[in-house]
Design brief:
Length: 161
């Protein structure tokens, strides 16, 4: 799913290049949905879901769960989760303005802020996924000290006796 999130963010950037108001509003919305869906995918890799505080709506519940991570999460996961909740909440507010408050003007600064925030969310989630894969990657044998060479294939220690 995270590949689609990157596609949504790419579309948001393309829309942001157009000066008309509809494109600017759509850029804010697409950037939010890129971040939302990436957080949703990231959350599935946590040991347990956080508390959703009984809120209504899938967006509010995700933000709440991220803001209140489960005790089974590591300190690093909990810190990242709360940071993602904060970023996603800010983006949600800009998306709500862009989608529903048509009398409020949309500034280029708001569009830029939304694009940067969404990019940060995707980057944080991707970095976390990369950290996970490195922890789970099988090792290819015993580790050597830095600077040592593996034994030569034809060294006496590898000859048949």
């Amino acid at each position: 799913m995270f590949h689609k999130a990157h596609d949504w963010l790419r579309l948001a950037r393309e829309l942001a290049r157009h000066p008309d108001e509809a494109a600017q509003r759509s850029a804010i919305s697409r950037a939010y949905y890129a971040a939302y869906h990436r957080c949703l995918a990231w959350e599935k890799h946590l040991p347990s879901l956080g508390q959703d505080a009984g809120l209504h709506g899938v967006h509010a519940r995700l933000i709440s769960r991220l803001h209140h991570p489960h005790g089974a999460c590591s300190r690093h996961q909990a810190k990242r989760s709360r940071n993602l909740a904060r970023l996603l909440q800010e983006q949600r507010q800009r998306r709500t303005t862009a989608d529903y408050e048509w009398d409020d003007p949309i500034s280029p600064a708001a569009v830029d802020k939304q694009l940067r925030a969404a990019a940060r969310v995707l980057s944080d989630c991707d970095r976390s996924a990369a950290d996970r894969s490195q922890l789970q990657a099988p090792t290819a044998g015993p580790r050597r000290n830095a600077g040592t060479k593996p034994p030569h294939r034809h060294s006496p220690s590898h000859r048949a006796s």
